[in-house]
Please model this.
Amino acid sequence: MTTTWPDFYFARHGETDWNREQRYQGSRDIPLNRTGQLQADANGILLRQLLEQDGVNPTTLNWFASPLSRASETMDRMRAAFDVELPPVIKDRRLIEISFGTLEGRLHSEIDREHARAPGERDESYWGFRPEGGENYDDVAARLLDFARELTHHSVVVAHGGVLRVLRHLIEGTPRAEVLNWPPPQGVVVRFMGGGMTLHAAENIWEEID
Model:
């Protein structure tokens, strides 16, 4: 059965200390650092501008977030850019980051290449790699295909880098090897529309943020 994906907006959570240190983070609940908070603030202004350009009323949207605090705080900070009352955030566990199991908390550089490979070193076979106690990307794809049944046109989704990789594969048809080695950016809003993806950066917004 083919999944039809609606148009929606997506943001990866802002930076955490573990992101900066290049640690496997996965399903561990690691908070935003100050850089990540500023990225989230900037994304809120950017999203507000995009909705205005697209003629979308933010009060008509569904707002979905991963329940992990780095994603839910990013969502809260983004919503603070709006001066209208928004619908409540729907926290959905299907949006949680891929679990790296026993590898979580370890540096990319610490892990033997036979057990895991950092982005830039992966081939298509890594899609099926499941660390001890963790998930593989097929597991995440199954979660997201289930989530797609509830996703509505012009929703906002805030989640994780691994989730964005899988969405690119499922929606755009981007090859697995390409998305596995792609570094999903922070501080951008992604627009999925008509089966394609456009990245919008918050580059010109920083001067508006203290």
User: Anything to note?
Assistant: Residues 206-210 have pLDDT under 50 and may be disordered.
